[in-house]
Amino acid sequence: MLKKTKTLGYNGNYLGPVVELKKGKTVTIRTVNRLSEATTSHWHGLVVPSSVDGGPHQVVKAGETKVVKFKVKQNESTLWFHPHPMGKTAEQVYKGLAGLLYVKDEKTKETMLPHKYGENDIPLILQDRKVKNRNVLEYADVEKIDGALGDTLLVNGTINPYFNVKYSQLRVRLINGPMHGTMQ
Ligand SMILES: [Cu+2]
User: Domain Plastocyanin-like spans what residues (predicted)?
Assistant: First the structure.
């Protein structure tokens, strides 16, 4: 039997849900920090005021809750979210804290791009990770060097996944990472 490994996730064990935002709408997002250390929720690539962008200054301490509210002003885009606490960004992301963020606008339906989520509009989160002892995510080794080179490729948190394509046209939304902020 494979060994279990410790991971982190948003609303789950690893990674997070795909968050879909609509241009022109005001959204409220609540972060409940159940970690034993501080974190932040940063909306990578989203055009929002810095006061709600979850940078290192918008700390959510262990056990605390933070609510942010902002208006979505951006055109259709594929972005992602992740923690951005001082000195802990890389480790928290490495262990699983990251998720996709889609912005949709009024033109989304007019485009010819496939838009059935999970059917012909597929999120692909690519990550390389060091997996030791048959199933343990090792961060300690990564920390020693400036950057990371994993021996194992994870796609949406899974090793060697596959997908049966049933459409002649497929949209894939690739996010390369998240091995982010190693130097932060
Ligand atoms: Cu980022």
Answer: 4-107
